[in-house]
Design a protein that fits this description.
Elements: H1 9-19, E1 23-25, H2 40-50, H3 52-62, H4 69-79, E2 81-93, E3 98-103, E4 108-110, H5 114-119, E5 128-139, E6 168-181, H6 188-194, H7 200-210, H8 215-219, H9 224-233, H10 236-239, E7 244-249, H11 257-262, E8 266-270, E9 273-274, H12 276-279, H13 290-293, E10 296-300, E11 306-307, H14 310-323, E12 325-328, E13 331-334, E14 338-344, E15 347-348, E16 351-352, H15 370-373, E17 378-381, E18 397-399, H16 401-410, H17 417-426, H18 435-452, H19 461-485, H20 513-520, E19 526-535, E20 539-552, E21 561-564, E22 568-569, H21 571-589, E23 600-606, E24 609-610, H22 616-628, E25 636-638, E26 641-642, E27 648-649, H23 654-663, E28 668-672, H24 677-684, E29 692-696, H25 699-712
Parallel strand pairs: 7-14, 7-17, 8-10, 9-11, 10-14, 21-23, 22-24, 25-28, 28-29
Antiparallel strand pairs: 1-18, 2-3, 2-5, 3-4, 5-6, 12-13, 15-16, 19-20, 20-23, 26-27
C-alpha cells in the first residue's frame, strides 16, 4: 500500500519539489473567513493571490450576498460605477443584435463592452469568475484597464487606479466596462512528468486529496482499497468528454461535493425543470443552453427533475447522449459536455433497499426509458460510499483546487489514443457486447488511465486490471438493471474485458421473510403471482410479486371476504373470475367435499400493481390449497389470467412478471401454454440459478401439476 500524504513526509517533500507553489496546505485556508459561499477553488485562488487579510476585504466589500446586494446596487446608483467579485457570463440576442452580461451573485443583467468579449471569449462559452467593473460613464478613448496585479500597500485591491480622464459620455444603462478573470494557467506536461516521482498509491492519494477527500480517512474505512478507486470515478466527467454517469446512494456521501467545489465549468441543476431552451438552445434568442456552455452538467436530486415539452426534451437528450450532437430548429450543434445524474437511494447496510424492483425505479418516470438508460456509460454504486465526516475533508497538503480543476480539463485534450490502443490490445473487450457497451467501458477506462497513468507508463499491472474491472463493472450494472427492467429486450451477459474477472452485484434478491418461507416451507393456502404497475402512456413501468393467502375459519361466517394492500388494483375482478371457474368445476375437479366459500378470507400482499389478467391462476391454486389443507410446492409461482372456462391467458408483460418472481427466489414457475419458452430459457436459464418453467393450458393442468407431479418434483 502506498504512503498517505496526510501523515508521511517523504511523498509531501517530493510533491513540494515538483509542484512548488501549486501544492498548498488546505488546513491553512479557512474558507469560512471568506463568507462560506464561495467554491473552494475561488477561495484558494484569492488567498494565494492576495493573502488571507486582503482576500477577506475583497469578499466583504465586493461579493454580493443576500444581505448586501441592494446596498451595492444603491452604491452603483449613487456613484455611477461599482466593482464586484462575481461570476460573469454573456449571452447574445441575434434579433436585437445585442450582448447581455449576467452577474450571478449580483442578480443583474446589463450590456457589456465588446472589447471584453474579444479579450475573454470564454465569457460566451460558460462564464468566468473575476472582478467586474460596472459603470454609467465611459472615456472617449480606450484607457488602460483599472485592474492590476500589483497595488500600493494599504490600498483596496479593487480601487481604480487614478487615470487622466478624457471626455466622458453617459451609457444609457449601467454597462460592464472591465473584467479581470480569476483563472490559473497550468502546465499539463509538468503535471504528467511529475507522475514519475510517485508510486501508484502515492499518486492516487495526491489525486484524492486534491479532489477534496482525506486519503488516510478513505484507506482506514472498510474496503478502503476499493474506495480509493471508486472516489476517482467522480473525477471522470471532468477528464473525459461526453461521459454519461449515474450515481445513486444515501444522503451525505458527497455526491456533488467534489464537482461543485473543483471547477467553475461544472454546473448543478437541482431538481426543477429541464427544457430544450435551458439545456440545448433558446430558439427565441439564439442563446446556447447549459450543454453548450458548460463542461459538466450535474442533475442533482434527479428524482425531482421535471421535463417540460417532455417528448422533445427527451428526444434531444437521447440524441446528445448517443453522439454528442443534437438538432434544434434548422441547425445542428455539437458539444463535449459530460452529464452526471445523481439521486438518493434507500439502503440497508451496504446494499440498496430490497423494496426496489430495479434500481432505476428511483428516477423520474420520464427517465425510466430503456432508450435513455442504455445511453448511460456507467452506474457508480453510491451505496458503497461512507457518509462524510469532518475527518473525511480534513486535508493537509494537496494541489490547489483551481489548478487541479484546470489540469483535469486539460487532460481531455491530452493525446492518449496510442497508449489506450496498447491497453485494448493487451485486454480486448468481450466480443459479444454491444457497441454501446464497448463505447462505455472505453470512455470510463480511458479516463481512469489518464488519471492514474497520465504518462502512459503502466508499470502497475495489478492496478491497471483493477481500473479496467471497475470500468466494466459500472457499465455492467447499467446492463444488469436493464435486464431486470426489460427482460427479453436485454439478454443477460457479463460486460467486461477478456482476461479480467468482472465484479457482479448479483441478481437482486429482494426476499422478505414471507418469501423465504414460501421458497422453503410454504403453508396451505399460500401462492405467488406477479403484478404490473401500468402507465397510460408508456405501458408497464414495473413489476412485483403478490403473495395470495387463502384462509378458512373454523366458525361459519355468512360470506367470504377479500383484502388487498394499498396500490393493488382489481382484487374483486380476480376473485369473481376465479370463484366462477371453481364453482362451475368443483365436481369435475373432485372437490365437492372440500369446497367451502363461507368463512374464507383472501389477502393479497405486495405490489403495487394491477392483478387483473395476471393472478387469477395463482388465486385458484391458493383457494384449492386451502380447501385441501395441502401446501403448494416450495418456491413456486403461477403467472397467468383465466377465462371463465379455465383457459390460461398470456399476460402482455410476461417476461417482466417472471423477472419479479425470479427476483424473489421462485424457481418453479407456471406459465401459460404458448409462452416463448426459448426466450424464457435464454433470459433466465443461465444467470439466475436453476429455474424451471411449466407451461399449462388450463387451470386444470396447473392443479394437476401442483398437487401431483409437483409433490414429487
Amino acid at each position: 500500500m502506498g504512503e498517505s500524504l496526510g501523515d508521511q513526509s517523504r511523498p509531501r517533500e517530493r510533491a513540494q519539489k515538483v509542484f512548488g507553489k501549486v501544492l498548498v496546505n488546505r488546513r491553512a485556508i479557512p474558507r469560512a473567513r471568506l463568507g462560506g459561499q464561495l467554491p473552494d477553488f475561488l477561495s484558494e485562488y484569492l488567498i494565494a493571490t492576495y493573502g488571507l487579510h486582503e482576500a477577506g476585504i475583497i469578499v466583504q466589500n465586493h461579493f454580493p450576498t443576500t444581505r448586501n446586494r441592494h446596498a451595492l446596487k444603491y452604491q452603483l446608483l449613487q456613484d455611477g460605477e461599482i466593482e464586484l467579485l462575481d461570476y460573469l457570463e454573456v449571452s447574445v440576442d441575434l434579433d436585437q443584435e445585442t450582448t447581455q452580461a449576467h452577474l450571478s451573485a449580483f442578480q443583474f443583467t446589463s450590456p457589456i463592452a465588446g472589447r471584453l468579449l474579444d479579450q475573454w471569449p470564454d465569457l460566451l462559452t460558460g462564464g468566468m469568475w473575476g472582478r467586474v467593473k460596472i459603470s454609467r460613464t465611459r472615456d472617449s478613448a480606450d484607457l488602460i484597464s483599472p485592474f492590476s496585479t500589483s497595488f500600493p500597500e494599504g490600498d483596496d485591491v479593487f480601487s481604480t487606479l487614478s487615470l487622466e480622464k478624457k471626455e466622458l459620455h453617459e451609457f444609457p444603462v449601467p454597462t460592464v466596462v472591465d473584467f479581470e478573470p480569476y483563472q490559473v494557467s497550468v502546465d499539463l506536461e509538468r503535471f504528467i512528468k511529475a507522475r514519475q516521482t510517485f508510486s501508484t498509491e502515492e499518486w492516487m492519494d495526491l489525486l484524492l486529496a486534491s479532489a477534496g477527500y482525506n486519503p488516510e480517512w478513505i484507506r482506514n474505512m472498510p474496503h478502503g482499497h476499493r474506495l480509493t478507486r471508486l472516489y476517482l470515478m467522480r473525477l471522470i466527467p471532468l477528464v473525459e468528454r461526453n461521459v454519461n454517469l449515474l450515481e445513486l446512494g444515501p444522503k451525505n456521501t458527497g455526491k456533488t461535493h467534489l464537482l461543485r467545489n473543483l471547477s467553475p465549468y461544472a454546473f448543478t441543476v437541482s431538481g426543477g425543470q429541464a427544457t430544450p431552451a435551458n439545456l440545448f438552445v433558446n430558439l427565441a434568442t439564439g442563446a446556447p443552453g447549459l450543454i453548450q456552455s458548460r463542461r459538466v452538467i450535474i442533475f442533482d436530486e434527479v428524482a425531482r427533475l421535471q421535463f417540460s415539452h417532455q417528448k422533445g426534451t427527451l428526444s434531444l437528450l437521447k440524441d446528445y447522449m448517443e453522439s454528442g450532437q443534437f438538432a434544434r430548429g434548422r441547425a445542428s450543434y455539437g458539444a463535449d459536455t459530460s452529464l452526471v445524474f445523481m439521486g438518493n437511494l434507500e439502503v440497508e447496510g451496504q446494499r440498496p433497499s430490497p423494496r426496489y424492483r430495479h434500481l432505476f425505479q428511483v428516477l423520474p418516470r420520464e427517465l425510466q426509458d430503456a432508450a435513455v438508460l442504455d445511453r448511460l456509460h456507467g452506474f457508480v454504486p453510491g451505496w458503497e460510499f461512507p457518509k462524510l465526516t469532518p475527518s473525511a475533508l480534513d486535508i493537509s497538503f494537496a494541489l490547489a483546487s483551481d489548478y487541479f480543476g484546470e489540469i483535469l480539463l486539460a487532460l481531455r485534450d491530452w493525446s492518449y489514443d496510442e497508449i489506450w490502443a496498447k491497453v485494448q490490445h493487451r485486454w480486448p473487450e468481450q466480443p459479444y457486447m454491444t457497441r454501446r457497451d464497448v463505447t462505455a467501458i472505453d470512455r470510463i477506462g480511458l479516463a481512469l488511465f489518464k488519471l492514474v497513468f497520465p504518462d502512459g507508463n503502466i508499470d502497475d499491472e495489478v492496478t491497471a486490471r483493477e481500473l479496467l474491472a471497475l470500468a466494466a463493472e459500472c457499465r455492467h450494472r447499467i446492463h444488469q438493471q436493464l435486464v431486470k427492467m426489460e427482460p427479453g429486450e436485454f439478454l443477460p451477459y457479463t460486460v467486461g474485458f477478456q482476461g479480467i474477472e468482472g465484479r457482479d452485484d448479483g441478481s437482486i434478491r429482494t426476499e422478505t421473510a414471507l418469501d423465504r418461507q414460501i421458497n422453503t416451507a410454504p403453508r396451505s393456502g399460500e401462492s405467488t403471482g406477479s403484478v404490473a404497475l401500468l402507465d397510460a402512456a408508456n405501458g408497464s413501468t414495473g413489476t412485483d410479486v403478490v403473495v395470495i393467502q387463502a384462509v378458512l375459519t373454523r366458525s361459519s361466517l355468512p360470506r367470504s371476504f377479500i383484502v388487498a394492500d394499498p396500490g393493488l388494483l382489481g382484487s374483486d375482478a380476480v376473485w369473481h373470475v376465479s370463484r366462477f371457474f371453481l364453482s362451475a368445476n368443483t365436481h369435475r375437479l373432485g372437490l365437492e367435499s372440500s369446497a367451502q366459500w363461507d368463512g374464507m378470507g383472501v389477502q393479497f400482499t405486495g405490489g403495487p400493481g394491477d392483478l387483473r389478467g395476471r393472478t387469477e391462476l395463482a388465486l385458484v391454486l391458493a383457494v384449492v390449497s386451502a380447501w385441501l389443507n395441502k401446501p403448494l410446492p416450495a418456491g413456486m409461482a403461477a403467472i397467468g389470467g383465466l377465462t371463465l372456462t379455465g383457459d390460461v391467458l398470456i399476460p402482455p408483460d410476461l417476461l417482466a412478471l417472471v423477472m419479479a418472481a425470479v427476483n424473489r427466489g421462485r424457481q418453479s414457475i407456471l406459465v401459460p401454454y404458448g409462452s416463448p419458452m426459448d426466450l424464457l430459457q435464454d433470459t433466465f436459464g443461465h444467470n439466475f440459478g436453476r429455474i424451471e418453467f411449466i407451461p399449462v393450458a388450463s387451470a386444470l393442468d396447473a392443479l394437476q401439476w401442483a398437487f401431483s407431479h409437483g409433490e414429487t418434483h
